[in-house]
Amino acid sequence: MSRLGVGVIGVGSIAEMHLGAYAANPDVHLVGVFDVNHERSAQKAETFGVTRVHPTLDSLLADPEIDAVSICTWNDSHAEIATAALDAGKHVLVEKPLSRTAGETEALVEAVERSGRHLEVGFVRRFGANAKVLKSFVDSGLLGDVYHARATNIRRLGNPGGWFADHKRSGGGPLIDIGVHVLDLCWYFMGTPRAVTVSAVTHARLGNRANVTSLSRYKVADYDPTRSDVEDFAAAFIRFDNGASLTLETSYSLHALEDRLEVAVFGERGGAELEPQLRIATEMHDTVLNVGPQIDHLSFDFAEGFANEIAHFVALCLGEAEQVAPVSHGTEIMRMLDGIYESARAGHEIRLS
Ligand SMILES: NC(=O)c1ccc[n+]([C@@H]2O[C@H](COP(=O)([O-])OP(=O)(O)OC[C@H]3O[C@@H](n4cnc5c(N)ncnc54)[C@H](O)[C@@H]3O)[C@@H](O)[C@H]2O)c1
C-alpha cells in the first residue's frame, strides 16, 4: 500500500481537526466524505481538497480506494457505523465516546474480532505532548504504584446545546462528553485497572442557561439553545480491582468561581498533575521535588494532539505502530460511565457486573 486512502464520516466541528491533520499528512489520500447534511459535506470537501462527496454511507463504505475511516458523527451512531465500516474492511478511528452505552459496543467488539481490522478510540488527550511525557515517566516506575487519581472537568457555562443537550443523540451530558476525557486520562495513567464499584450522583438543576450570552463560545454546528434533557453536573467515586480509587467531578453548568480542568495521579513514589499543566512530584535524597518538564505545551494543545493522534492512526493502519486506544479501552470506559449513571439513578453505590 502506498498512501492510505481515508474517508471521513460526519463532517461537523471536530471533523475539521481530522480533515486538517489528514490533509497535511503525506502518507494519506483524502478520498471521500459523507454527512447526512449534504451541503456541509460538499463545503468541507472543497475546503480540505477531498476527492469525492459520497451521497450515502453505503457508497462511502463501498469505495475501494478507502482503506480507513474517521467517524465524527453524533454519539448515537458511533457503534453502528463503526461496525458497518469494519465489516466493509475499513480500519476505524471513532471519536469519543465509543457509544452511548456499554451495551451498544457488544456487536462492535465482535466486528473488530472478525474483521481483523484496527479500531482506535479517539482518546485524543492521550496524544498531547504532556500526556506522552507523563506516560513514559509512569511506565518507567517513577511514580511507583499509582493508587489514587482525581479527574475534574468543570465548566460554569458550558452546555453547548444542540445534540449535546439531547439525550437521544448524545447518551448524556458533561459526563459522557467532557468528563470522559479526564476519566480516561487518569485510568490510562493508573494502568487501566478494572472498575469494581461506583458511587455517583448527577444533577440537572441549571439546564441550558441559554440566557447567558457567554455561552455562545460553545456553539456547535446545529446549535439549538432552547432544550436540554441531560445532566448538568456529575460526581463519582470509583474503586478498582487493584485497590486503587478515583474521584471525578464534571459539569456543563455549575455555580463555580471558574472553569477547572484537573487530571492528577498519586503513587507510592511520586505524583503528577497532567492538567492544568504537567508537573511531577517526587522524592530524592530525602527531599520532596516538584519537577516541570521543558516541552512546548505543558497543557493539552488541540492542534498538536489531533496531529499526533491522526499520525499514529495512519502509522497503525500502515503496520508501523502499535495500538494505543483499542476497543477494550473504549468499552471499559463505557462500563464506568454506565455505572455512574446507574448509581446516580439508584441513589447508592453499585457493584459493576
Ligand atoms: N476528541 C475531542 O476532543 C472531541 C471534541 C468535540 C467533539 N468530539 C466528538 O466528535 C463527535 C462529533 O462532535 P462535533 O462537535 O463535531 O458535532 P457536530 O454536530 O459539529 O458534527 C457532527 C456531524 O455529524 C453529522 N452526522 C450526525 N449523524 C450522522 C450520521 N448518522 N451519518 C452521517 N453524518 C452524521 C452531522 O450532520 C454533523 O455534521 C461527537 O461524538 C463528539 O463527542 C470529540
TrEMBL record:
PANTHER family: D-GLUCOSIDE 3-DEHYDROGENASE, UDP-N-ACETYL-2-AMINO-2-DEOXY-D-GLUCURONATE OXIDASE
Organismal lineage: Bacteria, Bacillati, Actinomycetota, Actinomycetes, Micromonosporales
MF-aspect GO terms: nucleotide binding
Residues annotated as domain Gfo/Idh/MocA-like oxidoreductase N-terminal: 5-123
Name used for this protein in its record: Predicted dehydrogenase
Organism field: Micromonospora echinofusca
A Pfam family the protein falls into: GFO_IDH_MocA_C3
Ranges of residues in domain GFO/IDH/MocA-like oxidoreductase: 134-272
SUPFAM superfamilies hit by this protein: Glyceraldehyde-3-phosphate dehydrogenase-like, C-terminal domain, NAD(P)-binding Rossmann-fold domains
InterPro entries: Gfo/Idh/MocA-like_OxRdtase_N, Gfo/Idh/MocA_Oxidoreductase, GFO_IDH_MocA-like_dom, NAD(P)-bd_dom_sf
